[in-house]
């Protein structure tokens, strides 16, 4: 895993430089810089909009008694999108804009390895099959009440 991360830290900047040089030679240096600044500004606006939209949707779900479990992952992807969009380069900008597209985020979340999430009111019973779930009700007593 460390080799892959190291390889990404080497190859992505080199690819970004190559693409910037190619684009700069085609449309000019100042136009390339202006385009990078434009994508960062547009990305900043979209990140703010998507972040607020995700937050409002999570609050609506909580108000209806639903747990907004996937909204945390959406928020992380929006934050990663912001990092990518503010990094100069067209490759990172493309990936950053893709992460701002909600269907793409849902697709990526669906491809993540998942673990079974238990509610705090459930406990796993270790039986031979290992698949039994016992519902447990938690009752707390306040010691200060007479």
Automatic annotation (TrEMBL):
<feature type="transmembrane region" description="Helical">
    <location>
        <begin position="30"/>
        <end position="52"/>
    </location>
</feature>
<feature type="transmembrane region" description="Helical">
    <location>
        <begin position="6"/>
        <end position="23"/>
    </location>
</feature>
<dbReference type="Pfam" id="PF04186">
    <property type="entry name" value="FxsA"/>
</dbReference>
<protein>
    <submittedName>
        <fullName>Phage T7 F exclusion suppressor FxsA</fullName>
    </submittedName>
</protein>
<dbReference type="GO" id="GO:0016020">
    <property type="term" value="C:membrane"/>
</dbReference>
<keyword id="KW-0472">Membrane</keyword>
<dbReference type="InterPro" id="IPR007313">
    <property type="entry name" value="FxsA"/>
</dbReference>
<keyword id="KW-0812">Transmembrane</keyword>
<keyword id="KW-1133">Transmembrane helix</keyword>
<feature type="transmembrane region" description="Helical">
    <location>
        <begin position="72"/>
        <end position="101"/>
    </location>
</feature>
């Amino acid at each position: 895993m460390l080799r892959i991360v190291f390889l990404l830290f080497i190859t992505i900047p080199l690819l970004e430089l190559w693409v910037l040089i190619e684009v700069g030679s085609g449309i000019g240096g100042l136009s390339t810089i202006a385009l990078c600044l434009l994508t960062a500004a547009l990305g900043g606006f979209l990140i703010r909009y998507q972040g607020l939209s995700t937050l409002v949707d999570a609050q609506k779900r909580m108000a209806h008694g639903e747990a907004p479990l996937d909204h945390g992952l959406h928020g992380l992807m929006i934050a990663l999108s912001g990092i990518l969009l503010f990094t100069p380069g067209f490759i990172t900008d493309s990936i950053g804009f893709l992460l701002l597209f909600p269907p793409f985020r849902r697709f990526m979340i669906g491809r993540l390895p998942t673990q079974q999430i238990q509610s705090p009111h459930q406990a796993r019973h270790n039986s031979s099959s290992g698949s039994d779930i016992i519902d447990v009700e938690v009752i707390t007593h306040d010691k200060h009440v007479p």
